[in-house]
TrEMBL record:
<dbReference type="InterPro" id="IPR011701">
    <property type="entry name" value="MFS"/>
</dbReference>
<feature type="transmembrane region" description="Helical">
    <location>
        <begin position="401"/>
        <end position="421"/>
    </location>
</feature>
<dbReference type="InterPro" id="IPR052528">
    <property type="entry name" value="Sugar_transport-like"/>
</dbReference>
<feature type="transmembrane region" description="Helical">
    <location>
        <begin position="187"/>
        <end position="206"/>
    </location>
</feature>
<feature type="transmembrane region" description="Helical">
    <location>
        <begin position="156"/>
        <end position="175"/>
    </location>
</feature>
<keyword id="KW-0812">Transmembrane</keyword>
<feature type="transmembrane region" description="Helical">
    <location>
        <begin position="112"/>
        <end position="136"/>
    </location>
</feature>
<keyword id="KW-0472">Membrane</keyword>
<feature type="transmembrane region" description="Helical">
    <location>
        <begin position="86"/>
        <end position="106"/>
    </location>
</feature>
<feature type="transmembrane region" description="Helical">
    <location>
        <begin position="54"/>
        <end position="74"/>
    </location>
</feature>
<keyword id="KW-1133">Transmembrane helix</keyword>
<dbReference type="Pfam" id="PF07690">
    <property type="entry name" value="MFS_1"/>
</dbReference>
<feature type="transmembrane region" description="Helical">
    <location>
        <begin position="368"/>
        <end position="389"/>
    </location>
</feature>
<protein>
    <submittedName>
        <fullName>MFS transporter</fullName>
    </submittedName>
</protein>
<feature type="transmembrane region" description="Helical">
    <location>
        <begin position="299"/>
        <end position="317"/>
    </location>
</feature>
<feature type="transmembrane region" description="Helical">
    <location>
        <begin position="323"/>
        <end position="347"/>
    </location>
</feature>
<dbReference type="GO" id="GO:0022857">
    <property type="term" value="F:transmembrane transporter activity"/>
</dbReference>
Length: 500
């Protein structure tokens, strides 16, 4: 298969490319679900990892973003982003297969150090692939559908994440309960399967067309100093770095806190993460429309305070009774999922929007490298702070442990980043109140449409039947005369006739 760029792409080629990028996204999400996030934390804790080592694992994907410099050099030298992305992606998938095979052949050398060593190579080559991939997508995806397309892609990936996470968590908990000696075998199988799924994603990437880009001739040092001289782009870098530091300072330790301090089983932790993913799935389409219609900065100004408020709540959940704890965690994960979906999409799109077309890879890689420094140091700092607060503070604030001090620190940095957002300028930026009004309108519309939904109507009738069966003095004919029922039915009839 020839991996050469095309001088000009037809509409059919662009459509085919968008479809293949969706396939690659699903394959990549499968790979990341099995070998990152909560499952990686569970594997590391099984191997006896410390808080600092968990921080190192969380920092690897972002710290290795500095190797996107290599990606820029390769694009400058060969001007073939597809070949660079495919080759680096293959090299990034091989360590996952090795991690899975080692425990099956040499169980005595399966350790956290070996895990960190091999994952560092995986993250290194993934960063090289990511640099050229971003520039490739910048030219392939039409600008007018950028927000909608990536929101649709993210939605499909999150649906897969939710489904896969639930089944894997149930399987791992079953093995831990009935076959504890085979727990490491289950983790090894997860890595092998993730590597195979990743290779399938590489195959989809290899078939995706690439529009030929204008060669970059300048010196690399001059190239990367140029984005830093653009006043508005520099302000975006400052805000993005501060926010990503606040986010990664605490987020990698939510699962650790729930499993180690609150004592929740892995299935509960995964289920809460699924709640967050479902919330993200249901909101990402809305954020995509808002990104195209309003502005990315406005989305951040609404979503970031919500996420910061949830981080503050993490400081007090340890003092809650078990009856209140789980419902509160569910609400927090719903809010975090919806707000983080908007922030992630807005940060991605605003970076693409402010990057010039001819030098897009330089601006995007500069942004990734600068934010990578803060994103990588944040979980390391979080691990050190967690150990420091645990060993130096004897007063247990809000009931359990010293994690609350770490969460409060993350919230404080997040509030500081909101001050920096005000200085960033974005074309087409609108007043935040317009988006708030739009969100309120959508929410009220959903509330009005709830009684149109057949499933909810069936649930309503079923609950009524249960009440009647229990012997309560309530007649069905009286129940449907509930205030407003007839008026709602009259409103439904024109809608039904129009749909039919």
């Amino acid at each position: 298969m020839k991996l050469l760029p095309s001088d000009q792409l037809t509409n059919n080629q662009v459509k085919s490319g968008l479809h293949l990028i969706l396939k690659d996204g699903l394959a990549t999400e499968t790979m990341n679900t099995l070998t990152a996030g909560t499952f990686l934390v569970a594997i590391a804790l099984y191997m006896g990892a410390s808080n600092v080592q968990i921080g190192v694992l969380a920092a690897l994907p972002t710290f290795t973003n500095i190797f996107q410099l290599v990606s820029v050099w390769l694009v400058q030298r060969f001007n073939n982003r597809r070949a660079i992305t495919v080759t680096a992606a293959i090299c990034a998938r091989i360590p996952l297969l090795v991690i899975g095979i080692i425990p099956l052949l040499f169980s005595d050398i399966a350790s956290v150090s070996a895990l960190i060593f091999l994952l560092s190579f995986q993250c290194l080559f993934a960063s090289i692939a990511g640099g050229s991939w971003n520039s490739w997508m910048r030219d392939l995806i039409p600008q007018q559908i950028l927000g909608s397309y990536f929101s649709h892609r993210s939605r499909l990936m999150q649906i897969l994440n939710v489904t896969l996470s639930l089944f894997i968590a149930m399987g791992v908990d079953y093995i831990k309960a009935h076959y504890p000696a085979h727990e490491i075998t289950a983790y090894a199988g997860m890595f092998i399967f993730s590597g195979i799924a990743g290779m399938w994603g590489v195959y989809a990437l290899a078939r995706t067309p690439e529009p030929k880009s204008k060669p970059i001739q300048d010196n690399i040092v001059k190239l990367f100093s140029k984005p830093l001289t653009v006043h508005n782009f520099r302000k975006l870098l400052v805000f993005n770095s501060c926010w990503i530091f606040a986010f990664n300072l605490v987020t990698p330790f939510f699962s650790v806190y729930m499993m180690k301090t609150l004592g929740l089983p892995l299935f509960y932790v995964i289920t809460l993460n699924i709640v967050s993913q479902v919330s993200s799935i249901t909101s990402i389409k809305l954020w995509g429309r808002c990104s195209d219609r309003f502005s990315n900065k406005t989305i951040i100004r609404i979503c970031a305070p919500v996420y910061i408020g949830c981080v503050m709540l993490w400081s007090v959940v340890g003092a809650m009774s078990p009856i209140v704890l789980l419902p509160l965690l569910v609400i927090m994960h719903v809010l975090m999922g919806a707000s983080n979906a908007g922030i992630t999409l807005a940060l991605q799109n605003i970076g693409l929007k402010l990057a010039p077309a001819d030098e897009g890879i330089v601006y995007l890689v500069t942004k990734n490298i600068v934010t990578a420094v803060f994103s990588a140091t944040a979980p390391l700092a979080g691990g050190l702070l967690a150990d420091f607060f645990t060993s130096h503070f004897v007063i247990h604030l809000f009931g359990r442990g010293q994690w609350n001090l770490l969460f409060m620190s993350g919230a404080a940095v997040g509030l500081l980043s909101m001050k920096l957002l005000k200085t960033v300028q974005e074309n087409g930026e609108l007043d935040k109140r317009l988006l708030v009004t739009e969100l309120q309108h959508n929410f009220k519309k959903q509330l009005r449409n709830w009684h149109h939904m057949p499933l909810l109507r069936r649930w309503f009738y079923l609950r009524t039947a249960i009440v009647l069966k229990k012997g309560l003095s309530l007649e069905f004919d009286d129940l449907i005369q509930f205030k407003g029922y007839k008026e709602r039915q009259q409103n439904i009839e024109p809608i039904r006739q129009q749909n039919s």
